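QA checklist item 7 of 12: single-chain prediction sanity check.
[x] sequence parsed
[x] length recorded as 251
[x] structure emitted
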Amino acid sequence: MSSQAEEFTIGVEEEYQIINPTTRELSSRVEHVLPKAQKALGLEVQPEAQRSQIEIGTPICRTLTDVRLELVRLRREVITAAAKDGNQIAAAGTHPFSHWDQQQLTPKERYQTLMEDYQQLTRELVIFGCHVHVGISDRCRAISVMNRSRVWLSPLLALAASSPFWLGTDTGYASYRTEIWGRWPLSGVPLIFESLADYEALVQVLVETKSLAEATKIYWDVRLSERFPTIEFRGEQCDFVRSDFNSQLQT
């Protein structure tokens, strides 16, 4: 591995479904599960837009082995916390049959603002994502990496696809989450930028024309993070039962 590659770091965010073990429906119990999870994980676990969601975020990792170990640890603690509340945790891009109109928005200003701005799109946004941050401190280099990553977004989606069902129907799409998310403003594949200045000029125009409030409201499938010195790959939360994580969770 070259010294250049070793500079990269990795962090992963995953959004999980809180499930009633009897009905298999989404369960709006995050206020009950979250305190139990935070006793073990602190701020590494957070609420998300829906009260039937819970999100974890790994520490900064330097190897894929570190990422694997952290995800196993975080998933195990969230599963344990949900079990103490009589619930289970599932991982997939959508729930196969729970209806969006039965879900409850998390009472935080951030999500209330989304409701005010986007209304029905927010009400129907019952989807679950996985976001991978790759640490690149040089934002000019990050723009170059983002440009070159565009062609790999479709293969990455194909590998992670886990949401063929929506409202009890086989949609015919391997990733119906992508179709739901694709209605959201500034989602999908980003533009190609000639430079960091080119990117910043676009963001400035979007803000000045009130097309978006700030750069954090850009939701491309790969984007520059405004909170961290990273580029962020934003995809579908995939079912971890089919991986070797499952055997580790049983030990």
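[x] summary fact logged: The domain at 3-249 is CATH 3.30.590.20 (Creatine Kinase; Chain A, domain 2).
[ ] second reviewer sign-off
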